[in-house]
């Protein structure tokens, strides 16, 4: 079951099912939700032990500059969503060109913790930190970008970085 609040975690615990915390929706209180799920878990016929996944929004790029540009497109999308605009995912060019007022900056700053964006080294370190913080059995990666190429490259970099036995990303 996917959930972004304590209610979802407690419901999954009571039902004795696996739970995925939607960090990409709610980056706050994830540790508390995970802890409550584990503490209140009731074994079921299907699931004997609590099993927690953390679903995270990740974009991995080859360089810091590329990651920063991709993040600007994400910022624009979040501002659009905050204003109720259901637009296609912005391109990097649209994100880089966009200027923001104080209100939009507040939206961006509030939403930034929901995503992990950077080079393989930065992204894998943050993912490992989240895994440890939540004591997650699994991480689920969600990548939303304005181009198929950027999404594919992000997954390629993550796959290389998380090769079995790899503690550091590989190129």
Provide a descriptive summary of the structure in words.
InterPro entries: Bact_Lucif_Oxidored (IPR050766), Luciferase-like_sf (IPR036661). This is Luciferase family oxidoreductase, group 1. One of its GO terms (cellular component) is cytosol. GO terms for molecular function: oxidoreductase activity, acting on paired donors, with incorporation or reduction of molecular oxygen. This protein starts with a strand and ends in a 10-residue tail after the last helix. The chain has a domain at 2-55 and 120-142. The chain has helices at 6-15, 30-40, 64-82, 92-97, 102-111, 120-134, 148-161, and strands spanning 2-3, 19-22, 52-60, 115-118, 138-142. It has 171 residues and is an alpha/beta fold.
Helicity range of the residues? 40-55%
Radius of gyration: 17 Å
Taken in chain order, the helices and strands follow as EHEHEHHHEHEH
Query: What is the SS-derived class?
Result: alpha/beta
Measured between the Cα atoms of the first and last residue, the distance is 34 Å
> What is the 3D form?
globular
The beta-strand count equals 5
Largest sheet: 5 strands, parallel
* Beta-strand content: 5-15%
Q: Uncertain regions: pLDDT < 50 for 5+ in a row?
A: none
Overall pLDDT score: 94
User: Counting H and I runs of at least 4 residues, what is the number of helices?
Assistant: 7
């Amino acid at each position: 079951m996917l959930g972004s609040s304590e209610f979802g975690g407690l419901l999954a615990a009571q039902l004795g099912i696996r739970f995925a915390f939607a960090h990409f929706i709610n980056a706050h209180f994830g540790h508390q939700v995970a802890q409550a799920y584990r503490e209140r878990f009731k074994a079921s016929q299907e699931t004997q032990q609590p099993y927690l996944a953390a679903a995270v929004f990740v974009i991995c790029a080859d360089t810091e500059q590329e990651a920063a540009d991709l993040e600007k497109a994400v910022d624009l999308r979040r501002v659009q969503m905050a204003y109720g605009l259901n637009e296609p995912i912005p391109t990097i060019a649209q994100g880089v060109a966009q200027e923001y007022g104080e209100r939009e900056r507040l939206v961006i700053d509030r939403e930034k913790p929901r995503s992990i964006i950077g080079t393989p080294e930065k992204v894998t370190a943050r993912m490992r930190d989240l895994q440890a913080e939540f004591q997650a059995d699994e991480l689920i990666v969600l990548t939303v970008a304005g181009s198929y190429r950027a999404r594919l490259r992000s997954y390629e970099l993550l796959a290389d970085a998380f090769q079995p036995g790899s503690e550091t990303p590989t190129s």
